[in-house]
Amino acid sequence: MTFWVWNVTNPEEVLIGDEPVLQETGPYVYDEYRWKDGPGAGTPFGNLFWTHENELVHYDGHKVFVFSETESRGNRPDDEVTLLNLPVIAFMDKLDATIGHDKILLAEAVFALRLLGVNVNTVFHKRTVGKALFGYRDALTEFLYAAGAIPSALFGLQENGTLESKSIQFTGAGDISRIGTYKQWNGMETLPYWSTDDANVIRGTDGSQFAPDVHRDDTLWIFVDDAGRSAKLKFQNDSTVEDIDVYRFGIDPVELLNVTDCPANVGFNGFGPSGVLNLTSVKNATLFLSKPHFLDAWEGYAEAVKLLSFKGTTLDRDAYDTILEVEPITGVTMNAVKRLQPNVPLRSYDWFPGAVLVPSALFPVIWIEEAARISPTAADKFKSEVRRPLDIARPAKVVCLVLSILSFLAAVALFAFPLAQKPTSSEYEAINSDRS
């Protein structure tokens, strides 16, 4: 997992109304460890629970990040950056929504917090990258946690070392067309986040496997856990991964259109300009998700902030878009890159001394690249144990295909992506030290 941080270079000027200037800082690369185990088992791939004649597999999903000094090219988790103070912004939004427009009462609430030793004056603050990503505590987060307003006093942009989800997926036994699709995600068969029944349907797979016999004109569905919704994928072009022919798919452009351009998106609260997804109902905080650098979004978003990038001002689709490269005969994903940018609205608060003059902008905080690619060793195994038998046994293609896929997935654990191992105890210690 690679993180790029948007460092605010002119915080004092922004407070008096100047355009925010954000410098892309990074990369900060973390090795990602994923594993699945049976509910409560506590061991990788231990006690996975199958039901309905092995048609369903029940598991707990885990994800842990460990810093990679080599891949980070000299950048360190203890690098200090200036960021939007998200707990303060969230607090101001909640206070504004709760009390309304009574400026005197709002100002008195802020003053009362100061008496309690909670400083909410700072719209921007300095944090180390490690603490900004994986969590820190301060007087405000402790106060909000004690008040029951947030689930933890540890506030961070990315969870680390926690249970990711409790899910049930179809194995493909009995019906290969359902392989990898969700029966439940995080204990839910339907989602509670969106405003229509159709938007709340959990469709598709986790992106590592699709039904065999994929065609260029197919619509593939994935469930994007970061966004709390399903999304359609459309074919983009032919490609190769480790000398394996694949189809490259990308997010269907209509998925981020507003309701004016795509009325069907009314269920996802797409009432603003196109190019972002409103995650307020998913995260219980005012948060919008976009592609990095506001790729494919309304141009007004990028015009409200000045984004300084190592790549210059030209938006590079290959560097900022999400792709999945799928081997069409088996439906196995050989290469996947997910790229997302969380953004928080910044606006003035005429009752708040530190935010009277700040300009309105959709403020990016970080952007994230999560990648998984088949290894050369696994690719050779795929070519010898799956593709070659299929070429030889074309008359019995369907039977051979099913057996080959299941055998290959069991052999290389690609169904969980090739990061299926737990970190060592020393790596766990490094994770915990970042939070202290």
Summarize the structure in words.
It contains eleven helices and 18 strands. It is α+β, with helices and mostly antiparallel strands and 436 residues long. The chain has a 16-stranded mixed sheet that branches. It has a two-stranded antiparallel ribbon with strand order 5-6. A hairpin with a 6-residue loop joins β15 and β16. It is globular and about 80 Å long. The chain starts with a strand and ends with a helix.
The portion of residues forming beta strands comes to 25-35%
Q: Given the C-alpha coordinates, what overall shape results?
A: globular
Radius of gyration equals 23 Å
**Low-pLDDT residue intervals, each spanning 5 or more residues:** 41-45, 410-420
Kindly state the number of beta strands.
Answer: 18
Number of contiguous helices: 11
Quickly give the structural class: alpha+beta
On the 0-100 scale, what is the average pLDDT?
Answer: 85
Elements, N to C (H/E) = EHEEEEHHEHHEEEEEEHEHEHEEEEHHH
Give the N-to-C terminal Cα separation: 22 Å
> Roughly what percent helix?
10-25%
Largest sheet: 16 strands, mixed
List the keywords.
alpha+beta; 436 residues; globular; 16-stranded mixed β-sheet; two-stranded antiparallel sheet
Briefly say what this structure is:
The protein is an alpha+beta fold and 436 residues long. It has helices at residues 11-14, 86-99, 103-115, 129-134, 139-146, 280-283, 299-303, 317-320, 376-392, 397-412, 425-435, and strands spanning 2-8, 21-37, 49-51, 56-67, 80-84, 124-128, 162-170, 182-184, 220-224, 229-241, 244-251, 276-278, 288-290, 306-308, 323-326, 333-346, 361-364, 366-373.
